[in-house]
Amino acid sequence: MIFLPVVFLLYWFVFKRLKWQNLLILVASYIFYGWWDWRFLILIVITSSSSYASGLLIKRFEGRRPLQKAVSAANIVLNLGILATFKYFNFFVDSMGHLLQAFGLAMDWPVMHIILPVGISFYTFQALSYSIDVYARRIEPTRDIIAFFSFISFFPQLVAGPIERATNLLPQMLRQRSFDYATAVDGLRQMLWGFFKKLIIADTCAEVVNASWSNLATASGLSLFIAAVLFSFQIYADFSGYSDIAIGCAKLFGIRLTTNFKVPYFSRNVREFWRRWHITLMNWFTQYVYFPLGGSRCSRGRTIVNIIIVFALSGLWHGADWTFVLWGLYHAALFIPLILLGIKAHKDTVAAGRLLPSWRELVAMVVTFLLVNFGWILFRAPDFASFGAYVSRLFSSSLFNLHGLTMKMATTLLWCAGLMLVEWIQREREHVLQIDGYRLFAAKPVRLALYAVIVFLIFYFAGQVQTFIYFQF
Question: Is the separation of the CB atoms in 18 and 175 below 8 Å?
Fold first, then answer.
C-alpha cells in the first residue's frame, strides 16, 4: 500500500529530471520484482543486458547484414533458451519420456526443480521485440542504458503485461515527462475499476469455479455449465483487471501503455475476439511470427499452416502443458474457417451509436461467447482426464438438473451481468469509469460519491483474494 505513493511522490517532487526519474523507475521496479525472490533479478538483468548490447552491435555492424542477423539471432536464442529452460524444460523432458515409452523404450531423464520466475514470458517477449525491431530498422537503438533497463522492467506492467513493444514504450522513457492532473485522475479511476473487476468479479467467480472443479463426480451438468461461464468471466475480469491497474498506474507517471482488452465478449466472431483479447500478445505473434512466416500473402494451404503455428505457440506461451497447446489449436480450428470463407474481423464496435444490438449481432455475440467459453474449459483443466470428465458430465442428462445450484452461483451471475451491462454502456470508451461528458456526473460531489460506492462494494463484497491467473505465465 505504501510502495506506489512513495514512488509517485519521489518521482514528481524529488527526482524531477528525466535521467533521475528513469533511475527511480529502474530501482523501484527491481525492488518490486525482487520482493518475490531476489534471484529472479539475475534473469531480468541478463535479458536486459543481452538485448541492450544486441541493439548497439546491430547498429555497429550497419551495412553488414549477415553480422547483424547473427547478433539478432544470438540474442533470440539466448533469451528463448532462458525461457525454455525455466518454463519448458520439464515439459519437454516429460513429453519425450512419454513418447519413448510408447515405443517400449525407457530412459531416466533428469528433472529440474526450479521456481518459474514471475512474468518471465512477458518481459522476455518485450525484450525480444526491441532487438528484432532494431534489426528490422523499425527503431533506432538507444545508448541510454538506464532508460532501456527501465523499459524492460517498468513495474506496473512487468509481471503480467501489457507486452509493450519498444516502438511504443522506449521513446516515452527517452523524453521528458510532465505531470498532467487530468491524466493522473483518469489513471486512478482506471485502477479503481481494475480492482473492482479483480476483487469483486474474478475472485468471487473463482470460489464457485474452484468448488465445481473439485467436485466433478457429483456436480450436475447445469452447475458445470454455470461454472464454465463463470470461469470465462473470472479470467477476463482477472486479466483485464490487472491490465487496467497497470495502465492506470502508468498514467500516474506520465506513461501510456497499450490497451490490452477491448470488451472481447461483445465480439461477433472469433477473429474479432482475438482483436480484442490480450491484444498485445496477439499483436506480438502477428508481427514476429505470422508475418515472417508469410502471413496470408502466400498460398491458402501455407496460410492455414501459419495460423496453426501461431495459435499452437500462443497456447504453449500460456503454459507448459499439452492442454494449453490443444486450447491454442482449438482456436485455430475456429479461426481457419473464417479465413477460408473470407469473413473479416469486425474493426468497429458492435452497435456503434445505438443502444441495443440487432438480433443478428446478438446471436453472433452469443455464439462467439459460447465457442470461446468451451475453450476456457480446456484452458482451466489441469489435465486431459479432468477435461474429459468435465465435458462428459457437462453434456449429460444432468445438464437440465437443477441439483447443485446455489445462491452463491446466482449472486455471482448477477455480478457478471452487472459487469456486462456497464461495459456495454461504456463499450466505446477506454474503461468504464471514463464518465466525462455525462450530465449526471458533471458535479464533482456526484463523481466522488460514485467512487466511494465502488470502494465500499470492494471492501464489503470482495471474494477470497486469489493470485492473478496470469502471474503463472
Answer: yes
